[in-house]
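Regression test case RT-17, inverse folding.

Input:
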């Protein structure tokens, strides 16, 4: 396995492999089993797997956890090597943004809901760095987790709108045995919070059963989820919405496939999850 922090060098390494298909797994590091699942999926689609490790400052707000976000490059490199990654690109912020960005990628309606409202500028930062990574790595395929489903759908639309020649592959969320979605931010949870956080997925699963049993009121489903979280955890529901699965339009009456999105704030961690519900 080869690794570098320099754009010039990673391009040179990959230019030697352009006769093969290349998959990119973009990450912010502090890798866990969810990232490992993305790497294994990438290996099914391509000859060469590249992983990027970059905590992107553009997608963090001023009061968010950019400085404290967990980082351990040596550990991440060991995990990548163990899973058969070919190249790891781990640039510094100075390498990716040597000067103040004059241009970023703007997003219309898809960033005006959910985390786009709670975290202004977040998705613009995500798409900007993904666009830069696509230009640097020039992958044939890019693999993303479905835990960040709004992000995944925005990236899919970005690729479509800008005719970017990259196939986007979404991978189901990797979970703990309890159902809690794997996340680098889970390290912020206390032992009690870690156990309680499993109720997030339980609430979504129970809500899906309600919908599939005939409940059509989105407000009724959301009230059920809020009550479930309030009664079983010390966390606070920070965001909760039900949107059409196809285009993320707001749904009042559930008469089509939907995605339930949720964010729960614990003392030091804001955890997100979602569930696709087929009608």
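Golden output:
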């Amino acid at each position: 396995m080869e690794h570098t922090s320099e754009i010039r060098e990673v391009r040179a390494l990959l230019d030697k492999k352009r006769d093969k298909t290349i998959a990119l797994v973009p990450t912010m590091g502090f890798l866990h089993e969810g990232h490992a699942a993305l790497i294994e999926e990438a290996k099914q689609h391509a000859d060469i797997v590249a992983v990027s490790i970059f905590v992107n400052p553009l997608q963090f707000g001023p009061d968010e956890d950019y400085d404290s976000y967990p980082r351990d490059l040596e550990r991440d490199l060991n995990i990548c090597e163990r899973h058969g990654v070919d190249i790891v690109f781990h640039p510094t912020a100075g390498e990716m943004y040597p000067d103040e960005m004059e241009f970023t990628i703007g997003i219309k309606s898809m960033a005006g809901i959910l985390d786009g409202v709670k975290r202004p500028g977040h998705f613009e930062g995500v798409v900007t760095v993904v666009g830069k990574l696509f230009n640097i790595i020039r992958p044939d395929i890019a693999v993303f987790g479905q835990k960040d489903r709004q992000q995944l759908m925005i990236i899919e639309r970005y690729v479509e709108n800008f005719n970017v020649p990259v196939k986007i592959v979404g991978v189901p969320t990797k979970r703990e045995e309890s159902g809690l979605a794997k996340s680098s931010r889970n390290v912020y949870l206390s032992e009690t919070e870690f156990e309680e956080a499993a109720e997030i997925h339980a609430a979504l699963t129970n809500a899906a059963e309600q919908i599939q049993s005939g409940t059509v009121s989105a407000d009724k489903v959301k009230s059920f989820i809020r009550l479930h979280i309030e009664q079983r955890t010390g966390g606070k529901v920070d965001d909760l919405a039900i949107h059409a699965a196809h285009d993320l339009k707001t749904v009042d009456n559930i008469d089509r496939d939907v995605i339930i999105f949720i964010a729960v704030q614990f003392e030091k961690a804001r955890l997100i999850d979602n569930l696709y519900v087929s009608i």
